[in-house]
Amino acid sequence: MRKCFFVSAFLISAFVIVFSSSSFARTNPNTHMDQGIQAMSKGDFKTAVGEFKGAIWYFIEEKVQKNWPFEPNDHERGSMCYLYRGMSYLRLQNTQLALEDFKSAEKWSDGMPDVQMNIATEYYKLGRHDDAIRLYGKVLEKQPERGLAHYFIGFPYMKKKDYERAWFHALKAKELGVNQTGLINKLEAVAPKRQTK
After folding, report:
1. Per-residue confidence at 193, pLDDT binned at 50, 70, 90?
2. Options 3.30.450, 1.10.1740, 1.25.40, 3.30.300; which CATH number does 26-110 get?
3. What does DSSP assign to residue 61?
């Protein structure tokens, strides 16, 4: 009888440990973020939206709601989750929710040029050229020698037919070592006014 009690106690404690650690894994924001990224890579955007929602809650929303302090990387991870969830919404044909998430990502990404570059690219894909230019511009304010920011800002300028600025940024990107010629080739086709170096 005593052996039976110890075996039962052992099994119960093992069950509690397994249950609590799997419960922690499901509520860990990094796990939600990782599972959201995995779901995106598999094309399961509906699952990705749910996983990013969980991560956003823990990285951002819960702390705002409860007035808790933020951990050092919460803003960056939270803004990335908003960005990824917005990208997932786009794949699910929900542009309005995607734009809301991009705006939230932008809000929490202040001072994070890598995140801002990604958001600007999504704005460009949606035809929101002014928003793309504004965000690429913020990146260039902080990192004026960032060649890819010059390269990418040239595209929305070209779409707006502001060829002078598009050429300026295309040539600046080339000067800074960006070896991609797509922007210059497109500009030469629509506005061959300047000679490239």
Report:
1. low
2. 1.25.40
3. I
Residue 184 has pLDDT above 60, yes or no: yes
- Compute CA distances 154 → 22, 132, 195, whole Å: 48, 10, 16
| Tens-place pLDDT, residues 5-21 | 444 444 444 443 333 33
Look at residues 157, 74, 80 and name the one whose alpha carbon lies nearest to residue 119. Answer: 80
> What string of DSSP letters covers 132-190?
HHHHHHHHHHH-TT-HHHHHHHHHHHHHTT-HHHHHHHHHHHHHTT----HHHHHHHHH
Which pLDDT value is given to residue 192? 84
Neighbours of 58 (CB within 10 A): 21
**N- to C-terminal Cα distance for the chain?**
89
Residue 12's Cα: distance from chain center in Å? 42
Would you say 157 and 166 are in contact if contact means Cβ atoms under 8 Å apart?
A: yes
CB 18 within 8 Å of CB 66: no
Give the Cα separation of 83 and 60 in Å (integer): 13
